[in-house]
Amino acid sequence: MKRVGCTVIAGGFWGDEGKGKIVSYLALRDKVDVCVRTGSVNAAHTVLFQGRTFKLHMIPAAFVHDNCRLLIGAGANIDVAQLESELHETGVRKRLGVDRNASIIELKHSSQDKKSEHLKSLGTTGRGVGPAIEERVKRSAKLAKDLPELKPFLADTVDEVNTAIDEGKTVILEGTQGLMLSLYHGTYPFVTSRDTSASAICSEAGVGPSRVDDVLLVLKAFITRVGAGDLPNEISRAEAIDRGWFEKAAGTGRERRSAPFNFELARRVARINGATELAVTKLDILYNECTHAKEFTKLPKEGQKFIAEIEKATGVPVTIIGTGPDALDIIDRRPTKLPTYLK
């Protein structure tokens, strides 16, 4: 039986945790009815499904489920050209709704981003997100309702998602980046231009915290980050390559810096996000024997111990484990959540 209720998907470290994979898996497994994406184009969610790889900056990763309504929340920042490109790639034009109050990233914002020496020193992606948010704070930004080309997609996404929750449907609020890039809780000033916590995801989507059933915090079995800023226990590029941890960012192609899993940090980010469950991705990179595993008992003892140590450090159960790149390379340890009327 599919799970019901509203789940927030948040990143735990500096992004790159595999949120796109987790959202796409849940969409297929739970037959998600509605998925709201928050954030902006400075984060890409990678989805590998049926032999194709999608790197999505705007479209919710739940698009892989054909009956899922896809929404872009009021707190999101939209790059219209990027959105149009992804609509063409995914073929979900008839399923997309864009909130009227989502703000717009214009070409001038990208130019400002790239010309700013200060922002470049912080490792910005140059996509214009910071300058666009600055205009929104000044109350001078263009909104989705101001652009004729977005008219076919305009929707009251706040009403849609809350109605879906009222009707007992399965809803995902898809966050972007990770808590350590939060404007308030991250490694300031080497952070993004918004909050990235679970509570902020709810705010951008227009869903009150009491209406959320679960907060699924996504962590990777090792840590990576792009750009400048602190990274505790960072290893060299050569060592990262040797361990198989070397990666490039899905959105920008920038090299990611690497470090071992940080149990103390995991505990902190779990508390701030109010995590009720954890997803741990790329366990197959640490332990090759578990590649494509679908059952916890099939993991090597070292892998099982690693998961147990995360649970002990955070006090939160690890219910989903990624064992490969495909959306369905998952060990699902979640207890089935019955609809209220069946309890």
Alpha-carbon Rg, integer: 19 Å
Q: Order of strands side by side in the largest beta sheet?
A: 9-7-5-2-10-1-11-14-15-16
State the major sheet. Answer: 10 strands, mixed
The CATH architecture classification is: 3-Layer(aba) Sandwich
Number of helices: 11
> CATH H level: which superfamily?
Adenylosuccinate Synthetase, subunit A, domain 1
Estimate percent helicity: 25-40%
Shape verdict? globular
Distance between the termini: 13 Å
The domain tally reads 1
The whole-number mean of residue pLDDT values reads 93
Task: Give an overview in words.
- This protein has 343 residues and is an alpha/beta fold.
- Helices cover 29% and strands 20% of the residues.
- The protein has a single domain, classed as Adenylosuccinate Synthetase, subunit A, domain 1 (Adenylosuccinate Synthetase, Chain A, domain 1).
- The strands form four sheets. Strands 9-7-5-2-10-1-11-14-15-16 form a ten-stranded mixed beta sheet, with helices on both faces.
Can you give me a brief rundown of this structure?
The chain has 343 residues and is α/β, with parallel strands linked by helices. The protein contains 11 helices and 16 strands. It has a single domain (5-338), classed as Adenylosuccinate Synthetase, subunit A, domain 1 (Adenylosuccinate Synthetase, Chain A, domain 1, 3-Layer(aba) Sandwich).
